[in-house]
Structures are given as C-alpha cells and as structure tokens.
Amino acid sequence: MGTLLKYGDDLTQMAHEGKLDPVIGRQDETDKVMRILSKKRKNNPCLIGEPGVGKTVVAEGLAQLIVRAANIPLKLQGKKVISLDMGRLIAGSTKYGEFEERLTQVVDDVKQIEGEIILFIDEIQTLVGAGAGGHNALDAANYLETSSC
User: 43 is in which domain, residue-wise?
Assistant: First the structure.
C-alpha cells in the first residue's frame, strides 16, 4: 500500500487518531454512500458538487463511522477509507508516461488489498483527459474504469 499512501491519506487511521473534525449535518449523504457501497453490484458512489460543498466531509464521516463501528453495514466493517490526492499524484510528473506509471502503481496497490479499502478520489474530474498526452497515451478515467479495481 506504499504507493497508495504516498499519493493518498488513510482517513480511517486519521479518524482513529482523532485528526478529523467531527462531521455535522451529513448523515443523509453518508447513509446513502453506505447503502451504495453495501450493494453487490453498481457499488461505486460518485459524490458530485462544487468545491467546498462537503464531498470530502462525507468520506471523512464514513471513516469515522467505520472506526467507531457505529451503525454501519457488516460489509463495511473493518474497511479502510483512503483519499487519493490527485494534486499529489499529478505533481511533478513531467516525464512522458510518469503520471500513467504512478496511476498504475496505485491501481496495483488497490488490487493487492482488494475488498479491504474504499478509495475516495478527491477532485475526480481531473482524471478526465489526465495522461492523454499522445495518440497512445492513457486517459486516466478510462484506465480506472477498465482496471477492475
């Protein structure tokens, strides 16, 4: 999980250490995310909204509920919520293919611990077209969609 944590944060660990602010007023959104994550299929929620409306807060709230094991479905108990920071993933990737390599390493980390983490991709819209620098280049959004993670 080294590459994943190089470019992301373990929100569950942060919640365990008391490093996250209490979440207030997001119970409906958090409940909906838990319902979607608990489904057998089509279990990838996508939180959409303008910057600052609270998408990250919902992910943090989920991590806090998992740590407290409070009112969460059995399927989510013991999971880790990892927030992938797209800024960190993209930053400094100046060489051709460097971003794609980083993303591939992150996906490999996710696959190694399949079923143990919930990956929250903050600013996911930055993935569309990211890495598409040439005719054979990787479009990060398409890569994630087809990578079976």
Answer: 2-146
